[in-house]
Design a protein that fits this description.
By secondary structure, this protein is of the alpha/beta class. The protein has one domain: Alpha-Beta Complex (2-enoyl-CoA Hydratase, Chain A, domain 1), CATH 3.90.226.10. It is about 45% helix and about 20% strand. It has 11 helices and 9 strands. α5 links the parallel β6 and β7. It is globular, with a radius of gyration of 18 Å. The protein starts with a helix and ends with a helix.
């Protein structure tokens, strides 16, 4: 879905959102209450500039509008693979974005992520996966690593990983698999305004992804391991 169609459905024709290249930002009104929106479009590769621009919006919201909810709109092909960004410290810029989102949560801002098109690799990890919860449209595309790349990293044959992906969501891309693993809390279908209203009202502030994954059968061991660590602390 195009970002303008999405925000029009959510906030009306005169929504106040604006795009500057691949960068999306706006302070909108949702059912009479202000909401800060920041994100990307055009399958944006997240480089230093985009990471810092998003972090700036989050930090400005924390300082200028305490407690204001934040909506992250996610459409990214992952981190920018350029020597310039590597030399400028893309790892630190993306970590800064993730830290800014985490700080917003700790300061009492409700932070909701929405994958409306594509979410790949580090561009997704340092945004939607750090929100209080991440949601997705049914047609969204989500993956962290393709099976050929996973084969190179794990040294396992592609055929074996492909076979595993048929029964284990951890090895398979796709929005339904991320729902099963708990990485995506739910899909937004039908009335998007109602879905956003429910997310802002009921998204938990504690991290329940491991427990959701266990309950849904897509990630069975994370929650027990987390509990063992907590019990031993």
């Amino acid at each position: 879905m195009h970002w303008n169609s999405l925000v029009t459905q959510l906030f009306g024709t005169y929504h106040g959102m604006r795009a500057a290249g691949d960068f999306l930002q706006g302070d909108v009104m949702f059912e009479g209450e202000p909401l800060a929106v920041v994100g990307t479009t055009n399958h944006a590769p997240i480089g230093v500039r985009l990471a810092l621009a998003q972090a700036r919006v989050v930090l400005d919201t924390i300082t200028q509008h305490p407690g204001r909810p934040i909506l992250l709109l996610i459409d990214t092909q992952g981190q920018q693979l350029r020597r310039r960004d590597e030399l400028l410290g893309i790892n630190r810029a993306m970590a800064h974005l993730g830290a800014a989102i985490d700080l917003a949560r700790r300061c009492g801002h409700r932070v909701v992520g929405l994958i409306y098109d594509q979410a790949l690799s580090g561009g997704f990890i340092t945004s939607g996966l750090i929100a209080d919860a991440c949601y997705a449209l049914p047609e969204a595309e989500i993956r962290v690593m393709r099976i050929p790349a996973m084969a190179r990293v794990t040294k396992l044959p592609e055929e074996k990983l492909t076979a595993l992906s048929q029964s284990n969501p951890v090895f398979a891309p796709g929005v339904q698999n991320y729902v099963a693993m708990g990485g995506v809390r739910a899909l937004w279908k039908g009335d998007l305004k109602a879905a956003l209203r429910d997310a802002l009202a009921h998204t938990p502030t504690e991290d329940l992804r491991a427990y959701d994954g266990a309950e849904r059968g897509g990630r069975r061991l994370a929650a027990p391991v987390v509990q063992r660590v907590l019990d031993a602390a």
